[in-house]
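Model: Ready when you are.
Researcher: Fold this.
Model:
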Amino acid sequence: MADDKDNENETPAAPDEAEAKTPDAPQADAPQADAPAAEQPAAEEQPAADEAVADEPTAEAAADEPAADEPVAEAAPADAAQAPAAPEEQLSPKERRRRSRSKHDGESRPARSAQERHAERQATRKDKAVRRRARRLQERAKAAERRAAAPAPEPLPPVHAPVEGRRRMRQGIVISDKAEKTITVRIDVARRHRRYEKIVRSSSTLHAHDENNDAHEGDTVRVIESRPLSRTKRWALVDVLERAR
C-alpha cells in the first residue's frame, strides 16, 4: 500500500525535460545556435574585403599613373630646346660688383700682415692703371678715326674781324697842356633845335695824346680817334691848325 502511494505521488516527467536529460537525444536547437557562429566569419571577412578595395587604385588613377616599366618622358629638355634663348641682362659695373659681393660664402680670409695688404693694394692699383691706360688709348684711337672720317667743317667767320672802319675826327681848342704828352681839348658844338629852330651851343672836353708836346694852350688843333691809350685818352693829335697869339 505504501509503495502504491509513493508511485501515485510521483508525477510523470514532461517529455521535453526527459529528452533534455537524456544525453543521447538529438538537440533540435543546435543548428540555430551554430548559425550565428557561421555568420561571424563572414562578417569578419567583409572589413578585410573593404580594406582590399580601398587599397586598390581606381581606374582613373591607374590610367593617370605611368606603368612601372614605361620610361618617364623628360619634358624639360624639349621645352628648353623649343624656348628661345633669353637675352643676357645688361648690368652696370656697380650692379655687377654688388652681385659678386652678394655671392660671398662668408668664409674669412687668412690673416695677413700690413706689408702683405699694402703689396696687394699696390698690385691692384697697378693692374687698374694698366687697364685704364689701355681703355683711354682705345678711346683716343676711336675719336681720331671718327674725326678722320667726318667731313671737314666749314671755317667760321672771325669774331673780331680785322676790318678798320672810318675813324672820327674832331676840331677844338686846347684848354690845358699841363700834363706830359697829353692835352685837353674843348670841342664846341652848335646845332639847330629840331622843334624851336633855335641855335643851341654846347661843348665837351676830351683828352688827346701829344707825343712831342707840340700843342699849347689856346691852339686850334685837329684830333683823331685811336685805341685806348690810358684810362681817359681815346684820341690822338693830328696837327695844329692855328697857334695862339
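Researcher: Now this one.
Model:
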Amino acid sequence: MAAFVAASTLGPRKDFARQAFLPHNVPFTLLGTGLLWFGWFGFNAGSALGANNSAALAFATTMLAPAATLMVWTMLDLFRTKRVTAVGGATGIVVGLVAITPAAGYVSPMGAIVIGALAAFPSYYALLFRARTRLDDSLDVVAAHGLGGACGALLTGVFADKSWNGLTDGLLNGNASQFGAQLLAVVTVMAYSGVMTFVLLKVLAAVMPLRADVSDEGLGMDVSQHGEEAYADGEGAVLILPDRVKIPPAAAVSRGGTS
C-alpha cells in the first residue's frame, strides 16, 4: 500500500511507457533471488526464536511454497506467451516467499504448496494489468508484495492446522472465525499503511521536493547525486564535470575515452 500511494503521488518517470526499462543483468537477478530465498529461511524460521518444531515447520513451508509458485508462474507464462522467462521465474519465487511468510509456522507442508500455487494467480494477472496503466511501480511491489502478502495472510485463515501449529485451525478445519480475523487484519493494515504513507508524503512535500529535478532524472541519479556512474558502457557513458555534480575537481572522472 505504501508503494501504491507513493507511486501514485509521485507519478511516472519522464520516459515511462515511451522507453523500455530493461533489467540490468538477468543472471544477477537470479543470483539475487537465490540469495533472497536463502535468507528468507532465517526470516521465517528464525521467527520461532528457537530450534524447535515451529522453526522446522516454517523452514519446510518456506521451501515448498515458492517452489509451487515458481511452477504455476512458469506454466502461466508458457500458456500465455509460449515462453518461460528467467525474470518471470524470479518474480514468482518472490511472490511465493511473500505469500508463505504469514502462514509459515501455521500450515502443513501440503497447505504451503497450495498457498504458493494459489498466490501466483492474483499477482501474475495484477502485474499484467499494471503494465497497461500509468502506475510506475518499477519493482511491481503492489502486485508481488501487496497482493502476494494479502493472499498469504487470508489463506492462513483458510489452511491453518492446529495439528501442525498447536494453536489454531483455519476455515478448512472448522474455524471460520480465523479467516475473519485475517481479513480484518489485512484491511486494517492496508488502510493504516495507505493513509499514513499519504500523510508522510504530504508532510515531506511541504519542506522538500519529492521528485528529482527533470534534468537530474534525465542525466541519471548516479551522476547527479553521487558524482559517479554505476555502469560505464562505452559510448553510452557520461562525462562527469565537477561543477555539474558539485564534487572536487580531483574527483572528476571521464568516461567513454575522452577527458
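Researcher: Key takeaway?
Model: The chain has a mean pLDDT of 89.
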